[in-house]
Design a protein that fits this description.
By secondary structure, this protein is of the alpha+beta class. The protein is about 35% helix and about 20% strand. It contains nine helices and 19 strands. It has helices spanning about 1-20, 30-35, 90-100, 115-125, 135-140, 145-165, 175-190, 250-270, 275-290, and strands at about 25, 45, 55-60, 80, 105, 130, 195, 200, 225-230, 230, 235, 240-245, 300-305, 310-315, 330, 335, 340-345, 345-350, 360. The strands form six sheets. It has a six-stranded mixed beta sheet, sandwiched between helices. α8 (about 250-270) packs antiparallel against α9 (about 275-290). InterPro entries: Creatin/AminoP/Spt16_N, Creatinase/aminopeptidase-like, Creatinase_N, Pept_M24, Peptidase_M24B. This is Aminopeptidase P family protein. Keywords: Aminopeptidase, Hydrolase, Protease. It comes from Streptomyces beihaiensis. One of its GO terms (molecular function) is aminopeptidase activity.
């Protein structure tokens, strides 16, 4: 992996130098981890002008732990731990850049606070600050096979945790209890932790995006919607499924489920290199709008995943750009009927060309409407 991290840093260095900057300062944690292999809390990465990374330094407020959740720094990367507690690694990086002879530095303005930006200007007033924009996020968009392997394992862990929950007794248990159990099972199966707060929604809460588990208990005849994900070596998966509790589904539940399933399938089948992001959204959304459920739909049908759970690309009506091969995304349409409940189906997939079998489905828990 050392060569991989070095190659990533060299690509970013080329972009920074092409923009007229002699150095680059990366502060967004996911971006630091992508380039350095680890992102200790508050750490920043300084890229110098020397090709091959001789001037590159990871600056930290404390020594890296090497724990899986934080990652392990690239062995070929210099690590500097600040001697004084409470020091700002970004400000220290500016000093290092000046010592290296840099007269300008590209920073992630979309991540730096105003106070931090002012501190950099104050400590190194002769250092010209430019905007790195989202250059690292653009590099992160297309995943290599090592990254996809981590995503695949994260998806397998989430599938395992969900599958075990479905074999347990659910009636009478609260949403909150089930969410906590799922997160424990993720860790038991090897996850760094949950990829995001686990959502368990029952009855009238089911199908709602962003629902926070409550003390409502599972009842016979409920829809049960579960959305969870695992983090493995920093990479995050996402899966969402809806089930019926106890009895055979009612006619309205079957009808609604079949509709959302058709929308999700349309979105999945639209994933291909070169496909416009908004067309994938439109494929899924068209099914739901055509059935009269246009009001209250989520703003997007899916999004990218990787070191963060919500990355580019965005699969939304106004999204610009096209999909590339080896880009992992979610497809997660849903319908919520106030007071009754709803359905959400969510998968993590990797965009692949048709010659390679089309989109690769990472989350494989059945999408059959099960009565539990």
């Amino acid at each position: 992996m050392a060569q991989v991290y070095a190659a990533r840093r060299d690509r970013l260095r080329e972009r920074a130098m092409a923009g007229g900057s002699a150095a680059a300062l990366v502060s967004r944690p996911a971006n630091v981890r992508y380039l350095a292999g680890a992102a200790p809390s508050g750490a920043v990465l300084l890229l110098g002008r020397e090709p091959g990374g001789g001037d590159d330094v990871l600056l930290c407020g404390r020594p890296p732990t090497g724990q899986t959740a934080e990652g392990r720094p690239d062995d070929d990367l210099a690590v500097r731990v600040l001697p004084a507690a409470g020091g700002d690694p970004a400000v220290a990086a500016a000093d290092v850049a000046v010592d290296q002879g840099a007269d300008s530095i590209a920073v992630e303005e979309h991540h730096l606070t105003v106070a931090r930006h002012r501190a950099l200007s104050s400590v190194a007033p002769r250092l010209r600050l430019t905007d790195l924009n989202k250059a690292v996020e653009q590099l992160r968009l297309i995943k290599d096979e090592e990254e996809i392997s981590c995503l695949r394992i994260a998806a397998e862990i989430a599938d395992q945790a969900l599958g075990e929950l479905l074999e347990s007794i659910l009636v009478g248990r609260t949403e909150r209890h089930l969410a906590l159990e799922l997160e424990r099972r993720l860790v038991d199966h090897g996850a760094d932790g949950p990829a995001f707060p686990t959502c368990v929604a029952t009855g009238p809460n089911s199908g709602r995006g962003g629902h926070r588990p409550s003390d409502r208990r599972v009842e016979e005849g409920d829809f049960l919607t579960v959305c969870l994900g695992a983090t493995y070596r920093g990479y995050r998966s996402e899966i969402g499924r809806t089930f019926v509790i106890g009895t055979s589904p009612a006619d309205w539940q079957i009808e609604l489920y079949d509709l959302v399933f058709a929308a999700q399938r349309a979105g999945r089948e639209s994933l291909a290199p070169g496909a416009e992001c908004r067309e994938v959204d439109r494929a899924a959304r068209h099914v739901l709008v055509g059935a009269g459920y246009g009001d209250g739909l989520a703003q997007l049908t899916g999004h990218g995943v990787g070191l963060e759970i919500d990355e580019d690309p965005q699969l939304a009506p106004s999204a610009m750009g096209k999909l590339d091969a080896c880009v992992p995304v979610t497809v997660e349409p849903g319908v919520h009927l106030p007071g009754r409940g709803g359905v959400r189906i969510d998968d993590t997939l990797v965009v692949r060309p048709e010659a390679d079998g089309g989109p690769e489905l990472l989350t494989i828990t059945t999408k059959e409407l099960l009565a539990l």
